[in-house]
Amino acid sequence: MEVNCGELTEKQIGSTVILHGWCRYIRDHGGKLFIDLSDKHGATQLVFEGKLLGEASRLGKEYVIEVSGKVSKRSEETVDSKSPTGRVEVAVTHMKLLNHSKIPPFELIEEKEKFLANEELRLKYRYLDLRRPAALRNVVMKDKITKFVREYFWKNDFLELETPIMVKDTYETGARTFLVPSRVNTRKFYSLPQSPQFYKQICMIAGLERYFQIAKCFRDEDPREDRQTEFTQIDIEVAFKDEQYIESLIEGMFKKIFKEVVGKSLKTPFRHMSFEEAMQNYGSDKPDLRYENKIVDITEEAVKSNYNILKRVAENGGRVKAVAFSGAKYGAKDGQINENYMLKSIELAKSFGLRGLTWLYVKGGKISSEPQSIADSLAPSEKQLLKKLSPKDGDVIIIGSDTSEKILLEVIGKLRKVISDKIRIYDSEYTFLWVDEMPLFEMDEVTRKFKPLHNPVTSPTPETLKFLESEPEKVMSRQYDLVLNGVELGSGSIRIIDPELQRKVLKIIGMGEKTIDNSFGFLIEALSYGAPPEGGVALGLDRIVAMLCGENNIRDFILFPKNKRGELLLDGSPSEIDPKRLKEDYDIIFPSQ
To answer: What is the pLDDT of residue 593?
Structure first.
């Protein structure tokens, strides 16, 4: 019988089987040759001896073969308890060479993972990298989760629809779009969608009511470990429902994924937190709540202290904030936080744009510092500081000050996560959070003009709509973001369905009538034909899979990812195009030509 390389157990002992795969690990023991034959399911140990020994000795790493033989039990001293097939082996009676292989440029064996080749090399030979068990597990996990997502939405009466990939270039926030020239329509371009946002809204206007899509999205931005120029999101839109329905729907999806894929029970409903509370207490609109460590305002205490650096900022209208890190164990042999680490944290804060950062620690119930003069200068406020921060012996405290409260909170929030991740004392493994009650607009600090906090199609709350034209900064949105362990998994909102309201919002963010008609005219026209109340959410599939696997780098969960320069090393793209071809096919001439 034909079997895969990962399914043989002691139940098959005595059976004759056929396997095919790649020669992964070869060991010559003189009168016997052992080869670990691998496929996507796992690996099985083959044993060659007698007449086949000479033929097998000519095999090399990653040669492709087909074998048949009898399954037998391994001797006790050779059992591999870490492998599902580690108690059996196949005594080969027939072998067929299917293909040769060049020597791979890096090791593909599981125990060699700690000596992993550099990422650039692995991305160039991604087809080999994907043969590694760890890389293969990532692909399988993504496939498994994608299947559960599809089944979940089908069972909830959603249609899986496909929106176009080549679309009209529209106003977007946060990143540039990729442009595609049209050969037929000279000097005109398509845009690759950053998301299917406008098209899923049009699906609701069309009366399709419940839409989902495993959607490809494109953003021309600098790649980071959690960003790629090309990525996949779970895209959802539903008519005649509100925020509570959409949030409950998504919670149900994650509950199913955690039970079926991760093997854990997930408590629902998820916690909610306002945008303002998140920023003030955690310095981030995506706070990691696995550790509490709240940011505390100590501006009043700074004014009363003798620490002039903080005092001057506080007296001149700035703010002073502090965070105590429980479990830091400063100075303990097994502690992870010491003076050198905290000095590096100060430099990190400066690189983030913060003007001043001070660190302290608690010893014997009192505030101490390096040098002690800093703690001494805070003595007049020590009692109040200890009461506000409630630190324990060994805890580290960071104190930041700045004239801009926004910058101060953002930097302290970043340091809060960096230091907490270093300590790694978590209250729970997975902490989900909905962040809502957000402003509709934010002020661009460079242009001093309003821009959407998230996107320009989010509906204002009915209670604050009256401020739209007179005091836009007071308008709140019907926006909701889903956060897991300090990472934004997705974002959604209830949409604007009034065409005139949509025009007003676009004007507030600085768009003129001509630009509105050119970029959004098709959507506004569609809204004028009885658009139903609707809302939706988009979740990053690659990011979800990475987090459930305990990883940060989403590149490991994309089949053919780009590197940090946005290059696909496998095929050498992006690549230059012959200027003659550009001119003849697309009527494009670059200035240098």
So the answer is: 46
Specify whether the CB–CB gap between 1 and 18 falls below 8 A: yes
- Could you give the CA distance from residue 410 to residue 412 in angstroms, rounded to a whole number? 6
CA distance 492 to 480: 5
Helices (H), 114-259: 119-124, 126-129, 133-155, 197-205, 243-257
Domain extent listing, the chain: 10-99, 291-425
Domain 10-99 architecture = Beta Barrel (2.40)
d(CA 459, CA 465): 9
Q: How far is Cα 1 from Cα 399, in angstroms, rounded to an integer?
A: 69
Q: What is the pLDDT of residue 206?
A: 98
- What fold is seen in the domain 291-425? Gyrase A; domain 2 (3.30.1360)
Sign of CA dihedral 466, 467, 472, 476: negative
**Any residues with CB less than 8 A from the CB of 304 and at least 6 apart, and which?**
380, 381, 384
State the Cα–Cα distance between residues 382 and 305, nearest whole angstrom. 9
User: Coil, strand or helix: which one is 457?
Assistant: coil
Residue 18: C-alpha distances to residues 14, 44, 82, 467 (Å): 13, 12, 23, 73
Q: Which residues of the chain have pLDDT under 50?
A: 593
Partners of 45 in the β-ladder: 36
Nearest to 360 by CA among 377, 348, 374: 374
With tokens 């790493």, the residue in question is 61
Give the angle subtended at the CA of 448 by the CAs of 175 and 512, to the nearest 5°: 70
Gyration radius of the chain's alpha carbons:
30
Residue type, 318: G
Percent helix, percent strand, percent coil in the chain, to nearest 5: 35, 25, 40
Residue 455 to residue 438: CA distance in whole angstroms: 12
DSSP-assigned letters across all residues of 527-570 = HTTTPPPEEEEEEEHHHHHHHHTT-S-GGGGSSS---TTS-BTT
Say how far apart CA 593 and CA 590 lie, in whole Å.
5
- At 334-389, the pLDDT tens digits run 556 788 888 888 899 988 888 778 999 998 889 998 889 999 999 999 999 999 99
